[in-house]
Amino acid sequence: MAGNSKSVLLEAEVIIVGSGPGGATVARELARRGKRVLLLERGIDHRPRPYYGTYLGALLYADRMSLLFTVEGLNIIRPIMLGGATSMYCGCAAPPPPWLKDKYGINIEAEVTETMTELDIAPLPAHLRGPASTRIAQAAQGLGYDWQPQLKFMWPGRSRAFDCGAKCMLGCRCGAKWNAAEYVYEAVAAGADLRTSARVDRVLIERGRVTGVSGTLDAGSQTFNAEAETVILAAGGIGTPRILQTSGLRQAGYGMTMDTTAMVYGFVKEQGTGNEPPMTWAWEDPEAGYLLSTLVDPWLNYPIITARKGWRYPLTWPRWNNILGVMIKLKDEISGGVFPNGKISKPLTGADRQRLDQAHQLSKQILVAAGADPASIFMTPLRGTHPSGTVRIGEMLDQDLQTEVSGLYVCDASTFPEALARPTVLTIIGLGKRLAKHLASPVTQVSMGTILP
Ligand SMILES: Cc1cc2nc3c(=O)[nH]c(=O)nc-3n(C[C@H](O)[C@H](O)[C@H](O)COP(=O)(O)OP(=O)(O)OC[C@H]3O[C@@H](n4cnc5c(N)ncnc54)[C@H](O)[C@@H]3O)c2cc1C
Fold first, then answer.
1. Does residue 452 carry a pLDDT above 90?
2. What are phi and psi of 290, to 5 degrees?
3. What is the pLDDT of residue 443?
4. Ligand 1 atom nearest 94 alpha carbon
5. Can you tell me the distance from the alpha carbon of 106 to that of 98, in angstroms, rounded to the nearest whole number?
6. Beta bridge pairs of residue 200
7. Residue of the CA atom closest to atom 37 of ligand 1
8. Which fold has domain 8-448?
9. Among the listed residues 382, 348, 307, 353, the one whose alpha carbon sits nearest the alpha carbon of residue 74
């Protein structure tokens, strides 16, 4: 609870809430265009701490110590720290799906191309893709599926000693992976005011126009009010709808996508994929609505996750080094949501189940072709790593990402009108760059100054 001391007052031209790829990008781009930016982030920067990238660390900075579940039992990993979920991501990059432009009129091609050059996005060189991962990809290719090396936000050359493996998902310790916090510090270098441990609870609205935000600082010990003519919510697919709901935009959070994910594991005698960089190869079937890639859960997560399937599965833990893993990501339909009572629900629809079944059968075939013992193959329980689509373009947001409240924008995974079923970060950066251009354009400046009657 907030203490008795007076509320802190802050002021800026633009307030941005959340420092994941959405918030970090807009903050950097607007600060570089001379805007007075205030960036409010609920977490802190854990990266310099000795525990960053360890199992203990992942408990400390993931929401509910990584034990956040939907009512259906999907485990959601939701990092709360500077850089958002790029602090625990696999460093994969994928261009936005064509339908974003064709169906919804959101063209971010120029912004994505610029980002790919700026961040040197490319697959890892062949010798770093991992022999077991490459064997899976070759087995799939042999069956007629055109698996490709996955684009990466990874620069092996800048790492202290490139040391990627499943443990990358606890946080990158070797320094090879790009993190949105890097954009945050570039925003700060350009003049942005960054406040960490700053949790925004609501947006302040007067006569249909945004006037600022309010919340608490330093683990709730101090309240604050911050004023600005423009507010951009980038608190992620769960955080943003919660703030909107508290602020009276009750439609937010109804319906969501998750790119619902499962792993299919099979055992071999040789080294498996666990100590290789995650997701070095991938293949997507846009018609069927799923993506397959190479991945294994980190060593200590493995028995915990498999125990949820049944007591026999954690017994395979000693053979973690011999697992070949294929990850399934589904293009799940909009369902469930993030509700005002705090609950999150993400039921699979009938079509989702059909997709999952198809992806499961194909993953089994690929693992067998890659040499896995057919009797050893099993699929893990479902989980969610991309909570998104909770404040959708075309429903709650216009094409410029503005809500019904003048001056109030959203720029994060919650804007997706459908499941991407692919890595999200490059699309979110593209949206952030596009929004910054829009907000900095002289036409927008004039209309932002107009107060509704
Ligand atoms: C294990 C894992 C692996 C992944 N791998 C990949 C991958 O390889 N490639 C890829 O593209 N994507 C990947 N993703 C998904 C991707 O990281 C996320 O979809 C993306 O980071 C979402 O960006 P965002 O800006 O919407 O929100 P987030 O990254 O979630 O950032 C939101 C920020 O807002 C802050 N916040 C929340 N509430 C508040 C509040 N009330 N006040 C102030 N601040 C608040 C949070 O602390 C957080 O920093 C992965 C995700 C996970 C969990």
1. no
2. -155, 165
3. 75
4. 11
5. 10
6. 215
7. 235
8. FAD/NAD(P)-binding domain (3.50.50)
9. 382
